[in-house]
Amino acid sequence: MQFIEKTFHLKEANTTVKRELIAALTTFVSLSYILFVNPNILHAAGIPAGPAFTVTAVATAIGCFIMGLVANYPIALAPTLGSAAFFAYNVCVGMKINWATALSAVLVASILFILITALHLRELVVDAIPQDLKYAISAGIGLFIAFIGLRNGQLIVNSDSTLVTLGKFSTPEVWISLFGLILTVILMCLRVPGSIFIGMVITAIFGIAIGQIPLPHSFISTPPSIAPTFGQAIFHLKDINTMQLFIVVLTFLLVTFFDTAGTLIGMTEQAGLVDKDGKIPRIGRAFAADSTAMIEGAILGTAPLGTSVESSAGIAMGGRTGLTAIFIGIFFLISMIFSPLLAVIPTTVTAPALIIVGVLMASNLKKISWEKFEVAFPAFLIVVGMPLTYSISNGLALGMIAYPITMVATKRYKEVSLMMYILFFIFIGFFLITNL
User: Fold this and answer.
1) Maximum CA pair distance of the chain?
2) Comparing C-alpha atoms, which of 260, 267, 265, 290 is closest to residue 279?
3) Stretch 250-256: mean pLDDT, rounded?
4) Do 105 and 249 contact (CB within 8 A), yes or no?
5) What UniProt keywords are attached to this protein's entry (predicted)?
6) Which long-range CB contacts under 8 A does 1-7 form with residues at least 24 apart?
7) What does 305-357 look like in DSSP terms, one character per residue?
């Protein structure tokens, strides 16, 4: 226990091993879908699904260990679906680039990420963002998470006429989601400790009881070998020799940079880790951790790893230190042999947790200076941009572009730091590269 206290400073963070364990379980259950979704996406790129499953588990576990030990943050590092989708559908399918070469592009972007981190450029960017916009980022991620939860629970579905609409209450998936949401809301109102995790467990039991969630055929299985993907990123570095691939590297770098920066700001704000001056302690270590995780992920054979928004579920359960991340990593390693059991936890079970977490994170809206339009407008673009564009980096970019414009218009341009003006042009370039 002394080693744990000395390493993670639990007393200083006002937490316990039990609380960190429950937080880790909550994040793991919320994030466990990545074990099945990420391999499916990577398989579309040509990577064998079996090895992709094992790589996803191992890469995520190592990423969590790095984050926990280096930065002491209760945040999971896992393959991000946005980057995975870009990797598979844009680069491999659309550009017809071999998946091994695409992994090399991820590795090069990761190395550049390390260099940028070593030069403290990422810290300068985060420190330059005004506090009001940091509140907006946290709240925007909350709405984004809630939207993901509503979609995963089929409470909101696609509509050809109105883009989105309410799901059909005649479908069993909706009833499972509603059961879990109502139960979790009641538990939250009653201030029951571990209410989000308890809600997920009871919801899974409810789904099994009504015959909509199948019982697993077995409980353990041998994880597939990662031999087909391991090291391919290194072996194909020589292929990164065309302008097309340089653009791919740059896109990986930009998307992961802004996604991670935005998510880290949101998660640390939610966890109460931001100090009175708006500075995030150990932010440099956190950036070093996710940069390193990107490298190990590329070498193992997966799309870029990044800060997981599902970490907010564990933070809501009281996770405050890197011990939470360590436990999450252990759960992912264990999951490799219990994969049949994980298959019985569909997104309808975890959807209520994401919706509740979205509510908790949206509380930062009250801290934004809404009475000042020059602040309110860019903050609003961030808040609505993240869920409506289904991208943290896009929402962040919209606000970062709008902020210098509104501040200059109100003759408050001297209050805008040089870095914010630089970011203005960088984000315009970001849009031109990623959306043309």
Assistant:
1) 67
2) 265
3) 77
4) yes
5) Cell membrane, Membrane, Transmembrane, Transmembrane helix, Transport
6) 4/323, 7/69, 7/72, 7/322, 7/323
7) EEE-TTHHHHHHTT--SHHHHHHHHHHHHHHTT-HHHHTT--HHHHHHHHHHH
Report the alpha-carbon distance of residue 344 to residue 376 in Å, rounded: 44
The token pair at 95 is 């550009």
Q: Is the pLDDT of residue 310 over 80?
A: yes
pLDDT for 46-63, tens place per residue? 998 889 999 999 999 999
Please report which confidence band the pLDDT of residue 379 belongs to, taking 50, 70 and 90 as the band edges.
very high
- For helices 347-361 and 243-270, angle between their N-to-C axes, nearest 10 degrees: 70
Domain residue extents for the chain: 2-434
Nearest-CA neighbor of 210 among 265, 173, 247?
A: 173
Interhelix angle 418-434/392-409, nearest 10 degrees: 130
pLDDT the model gives residue 23: 93
Provide the CA 209 distance to its chain's centre, in angstroms: 32
This model's pTM is above 0.70: yes
From residue 96, alpha-carbon distances to 44, 69, 93, 99, 299 in Å are 12, 39, 5, 9, 21
* Nearest CA among 305, 292, 334, 293 for reference residue 25: 334
Instruction: Determine the average pLDDT of the residues in 206-218.
Output: 84
Secondary structure of 207-219 in HEC code, one letter for each residue: HHHCCCCCCCCCC
What single-letter amino acid sits at 296? E
381's CB contacts (< 8 A; 6+ apart) are 395, 398, 399, 402
CA distance 10 to 133: 30
Tell me the C-alpha distance between 263 and 282, whole Å: 15
Contact 204, 347 (CB under 8 A): no
Q: 301: Cβ–Cβ under 8 A, 6 or more apart, which residues?
A: 47, 51, 52, 55, 103, 226, 228, 229, 230, 232, 233
pLDDT score of 295 more than 90: yes
Helix/strand/coil percent split, the chain, to 5: 70, 5, 25
Distance separating alpha carbons of residues 344 and 213, to the nearest angstrom: 6
Output phi, psi for 165, to 5 deg: -155, 175
Residue 409's contacts (CB-CB under 8 Å, 6 or more residues apart) are 374
